[in-house]
TrEMBL record:
Domain called Phospholipid/glycerol acyltransferase: residue spans: 72-186
GO biological process assignments: phosphatidic acid biosynthetic process
PANTHER family reported in the protein's UniProt record: 1-ACYL-SN-GLYCEROL-3-PHOSPHATE ACYLTRANSFERASE (PTHR10434:SF40)
Pathway terms, separated by semicolons: Lipid metabolism
Alphabetized CDD domains for the sequence: LPLAT_AGPAT-like
Major enzyme class: transferase
Protein name: 1-acyl-sn-glycerol-3-phosphate acyltransferase
GO MF annotation list: 1-acylglycerol-3-phosphate O-acyltransferase activity
InterPro entries reported for this sequence: Plipid/glycerol_acylTrfase
Assigned keywords, A-Z: Acyltransferase, Membrane, Transferase, Transmembrane, Transmembrane helix
Length: 267
C-alpha cells in the first residue's frame, strides 16, 4: 500500500506542478514580483494537501514567533526535497543563491529570474563573488530572507554533522541574524527513494542568533544549537512514528543517544 500511495503521490506532484505552470504562468509573469509569489506558495500548499490526503504525512511548525522582521538568514536542516520548498509559505520574500546553470533550464530559469534569485558560478572568485555578496546585501537591506542550508547538501537523518564555513562568512559580511531550523522530513521522504511514508513530523524554528559574533564563535554556536535540537527532535519523531523504517544513519545516531526503540525497523 505504501508503494502504491507513493507512486500516486509522485504522479500527482508532477501533474500538479506542470498543470499549475501552464495555467498560472501568464499571471506569474505579468504580476508584480512580490504578488507573483502567490503562485509558487499556493503550489506548495497544494503539495502539502496532496501529501496529507494521498500518503498520510502531516507536519506542524513550532517557533514561528522566533522569525524576526526584515532581512535575515534562514538556515534549515536539509534532508529531503520536501525542505527545499516546504516552508516557502511562511517566508515573506525569500531569496536563494543558486548555481547559474539552473537559469538555463527553459521556463524554470525565467521563473527564478522573475524572483530575482542570485546566480553564481561555483568556481568563481574575486570580483565575481564580491558582486554576488553585494547583490545579497541589497536583498537583505530590502527585507528579504536568504535561505542557506548550513551543510550545503542533503544529509540523511542522523548523519554526522558536516557544516560548511560559508554561512559564517555570510553572517559576518551581511551583519544580519541567522535563524536555525531543525526537522526530519527525510524520515518520511528519503533522499534518492521514491517511497513516501505516512506519519507526523515537526519543524522547529529556533531562536535567531543575533549579528555581531566572531565568525568562529558563531559557527560553533550554530552547530551546537542545531545538533542538540536535531537530536532531541529525532528521538521525538521516531518515538511518535514507530512504524517508520530507519536507515543506517538514523539507527546509529539513536543507538549513540541510547534511544533506539526496541523492534525498530531497518530502512
Amino acid at each position: 500500500m505504501i508503494a502504491f500511495r507513493s507512486i500516486l503521490f509522485n504522479a500527482a506532484f508532477y501533474i500538479n506542478l506542470i498543470g499549475r505552470m501552464i495555467i498560472f504562468t501568464p499571471y506569474y509573469f505579468l504580476a508584480e514580483r512580490k504578488a507573483a509569489w502567490s503562485i509558487p506558495k499556493n503550489w506548495v500548499r497544494s503539495n502539502h494537501w496532496l501529501q496529507k490526503v494521498i500518503v498520510g504525512t502531516t507536519f506542524e511548525i513550532e517557533g514561528l514567533e522566533n522569525i524576526p522582521e526584515g532581512g535575515y538568514i534562514f538556515a534549515p536542516k536539509h534532508q529531503s526535497f520536501w525542505d527545499a520548498y516546504g516552508l516557502l509559505p511562511w517566508l515573506d520574500d525569500p531569496v536563494y543563491i543558486l548555481k547559474r546553470e539552473l537559469g538555463w533550464i527553459p521556463l524554470f530559469g525565467q521563473y527564478i529570474f522573475k524572483m530575482k534569485m542570485i546566480p553564481v558560478d561555483r568556481g568563481a572568485k574575486g570580483k565575481v563573488m564580491a558582486k554576488v555578496l553585494d547583490r545579497t546585501r541589497q536583498a537583505m537591506q530590502s527585507g528579504r530572507q536568504l535561505i542557506i542550508y548550513p551543510e550545503g547538501t542533503r544529509r540523511p537523518p542522523g548523519a554526522p554533522p558536516s557544516y560548511k564555513y560559508g554561512i559564517a562568512r555570510l553572517y559576518r559580511d551581511l551583519d544580519v541574524p541567522v535563524v536555525p531550523v531543525v526537522m526530519h522530513p527525510g524520515l518520511f521522504w528519503p533522499r534518492r527513494k521514491f517511497l513516501r511514508f505516512p506519519g507526523h513530523f515537526k519543524v522547529r524554528v529556533l531562536k535567531p542568533i543575533p549579528p555581531g559574533m566572531d565568525s568562529d564563535a558563531f559557527m560553533q554556536k550554530l552547530i551546537d544549537v542545531m545538533e542538540t535540537e536535531s537530536d532531541a527532535l529525532l528521538i521525538e519523531t521516531v518515538g511518535a512514528n514507530p512504524h517508520l523504517p530507519l536507515r543506517e544513519d538514523a539507527r546509529r545516531r539513536l543507538e549513540e543517544l541510547g534511544a533506539l526503540p526496541s523492534g525498530a525497523k531497518a530502512g
